[in-house]
Amino acid sequence: MALAKIRVAIAGVGNCASALIQGVSYYSSGDDDTGLAMRKAAGYDPSDIAFVTAFDVSTKKVGRDLGEAILQHPNNTTKIASVGRLGVTVKKGPVLDGIGKYLKNVVKESKEREVQVVDELRASGAEILVNYLPVGSTRATQHYAEASLKAGVAFVNAMPVFVASDRNWAGRFREAGLSIAGDDVMSQVGATILHKTIIKMCVDRGVKVDETYQLNIGGDTDFLNMLEETRLKDKRESKTSAVRAMSPYDVPTRIGPSDYVPFLKNDKVCYIWVKGRYFGGTPVRIDLKLHVVDAYDSAGVMVDAIRGTKVGSDRRVAGELVSVSAYCFKHPPVQMPYQEAKVAFEEFLSGKRER
Q: What's the average pLDDT block by block, 10 residues per block, for the chain (355 residues)?
């Protein structure tokens, strides 16, 4: 018997949402497995993801069909699929702290009436709410997390506001009997997973890591928004803690966005630098440059996060999904090296691990 569709709601119809929606359409049109870590996750295919409602605040997106909204300015990621109309109208969500001072000149707030998120989640039949709000949207993220609890919907937090990794929030989802995964999605071939792997390799191979940094530049609204330093506290902590967890000793580390370069659009360029010492105290330096299309780097992991969360919901796993979060996110409840997280995730999908 075919498994039921995974009914997904989205908060924030930006580039990341666009890439996820286009990706689901892309993998629904054939058997091409290119770019997927796994075609089936406990029986679920990417094509089983169905988008049933969405929330945004932009005048260019609210009131439009979701398939059209993902192509509206300032979204600027690469187009890989013709999605067409999805029969889902983007609703006006709460603004709260979702629009930073640099975004105000780019994202004009819709004058449409704000909907009650809880009511919309219930009416749409959503099973999972994916949070794609801008960096620094702490109160707005918490509003959607609260709505998930009240509506009885699982929560996948792709953004660097700590919910799944916060003991109090995770406890509330556990008490409500709902699954939660997060926080801050770790890209498929991104700066954090690469940086973690390099540091872990150095430590395992006997290299004493003395210093390391990671700098990122990009040209989308995410990087524009991150020019506002006050919105970056959780983002820096999320990325830095993921790397530091790979070493048993403290390593001076500097990680975070460094600049907004408009003509890069949704391309992201990352620079990783590691200074250390190996046999006999001999110095070693690692200089690495990574260039990706940022939104699709995220979407390649979110299809797994969503399917993993659906499996958790199917099994009535309440609270934080440890393996899903460690595999898919930068700031999970429990940090793990990549290979360990991968094994844990696969064991969870197969039923060998509880969460």
A: 81 98 94 92 96 98 98 96 96 96 94 97 98 96 98 98 97 98 96 95 98 96 92 90 94 90 97 98 98 96 98 97 98 95 97 92
Q: Which residues are within 8 A (CB) of 65 and not within 5 positions of it... i.e. 6 or more apart?
A: 85, 86, 87, 88, 89, 90
Token digits for 107?
């994202």
Dihedral (CA of 69, 72, 76, 79) sign: positive
CA–centroid distance for 47 within its chain: 19
Q: What are phi and psi of 261, to 5 degrees?
A: -120, 95
Residue 116 buriedness (CB in 10 A; 0-12 / 13-18 / 19+): middle
- The CA dihedral of 293, 298, 301, 307, to the nearest 10 degrees, is -130
Cβ contact 310:127 at 8 Å: yes
Helix (H, G, I), strand (E, B) or coil at 190: coil
Integer Cα distance of 114 and 171 in angstroms: 29
pLDDT of residue 1: 42
Q: What is the DSSP string of 267-323?
A: EEEEEEEEEEEEGGGEEEEEEEEEEEEHHHHHHHHHHHHHHHHHHHHHTT--EE-HH
Q: How many CA atoms lie within 13 A of 28 on its CB side?
A: 16
104 sits in the region (left: phi over 0; alpha: psi -120 to 50; else beta) called alpha
Given CA atoms 51, 52, 53, 58 in this order, what sign does their dihedral have? positive
Which amino acid type is present at position 153? V
